[in-house]
Design a protein that fits this description.
Keywords: Signal. This protein is mainly beta. The chain is built from 1 helix and 16 strands. The longest helix has 24 residues.
Length: about 230
């Protein structure tokens, strides 16, 4: 019996060693994920499968990037004011060595939450004195006839983006860094109404997402938030 026991233990040690060698041959993959909450008066916990990646994220705040194994995940949210209700948002495929962000907004027309995920390009701009900027619109507005109003983004009188609607986003553009841009947000193709303005300081080498929230036509109900990704 003693001899048999030694043989078995020896076999287990060999199998363990083989498993370690096999595991080391499998490349370790990783991806990064962050979450932004654009819903006023709400805070959320965020989960990817069973991993909690955000805790009590309040309006206008975002989590730092969380490093995750690169694979397919199911996204869950929990409204901290109703912790028994878990919301299954959907799935996201976190790819190796990539960065992703998720944005939660509120659709005031249909009275439902809206969720969008984006891949973040954190590669620095080609020119050393430049920065990169994109915009995601969580804002809304409606004309008296019920037609939705989209938004244009200008820097002074230079149009950068046109026709942004609710939950839409732009591609990155490259702009000169170390500057302050005097942004103004206008109803699409309306050159007279400028209800909202923002002075936007930038630094070279940075990657920014500008998030707009609220009523496009109201200076009281329109807000902006900026994520600096690097």
């Amino acid at each position: 019996m003693k001899k048999l026991l030694i043989v078995v233990l020896g076999w287990l040690i060999v199998m363990t060693a083989c498993k370690k060698n096999s595991d080391s041959a499998i490349p370790v993959t990783s991806s990064s994920f962050m979450f932004f909450n654009g819903v006023p008066d709400k805070a959320y916990d965020i989960w990817l499968d069973s991993a909690k990646v955000g805790s009590k994220v309040i309006f206008g705040q975002h989590t730092p990037y969380q490093s995750m194994r690169a694979q397919l995940y199911t996204i869950y949210m929990v409204d901290t004011s109703n912790p028994r209700d878990t919301i299954r948002v959907g799935q996201i495929n976190l790819r190796n060595k990539r960065f992703f962000s998720a944005y939660l907004g509120y659709d005031s027309a249909n009275k439902v939450l809206a969720f969008r995920t984006l891949e973040d390009d954190l590669n620095p701009p080609a020119a050393a004195d430049s920065m990169k900027l994109r915009v995601i619109s969580l804002n809304y507005a409606f004309r008296s006839n019920g037609q939705a109003v989209t938004m244009d983004l200008f820097s002074q009188n230079n149009k950068f983006f046109r026709g942004l609607g609710f939950m839409q986003f732009t591609q990155y553009i490259t702009l000169f860094g170390d500057s302050t841009y005097h942004f103004n947000f206008r109803p699409t193709d309306d050159t007279t109404a400028i209800p909202n303005k923002l002075d936007f300081p930038s630094q070279h080498g940075k990657v920014y997402t500008l998030i707009t929230i609220g009523n496009t036509l109201s200076s009281d109900k329109f807000k902006t938030f900026t994520i600096t990704h690097n």
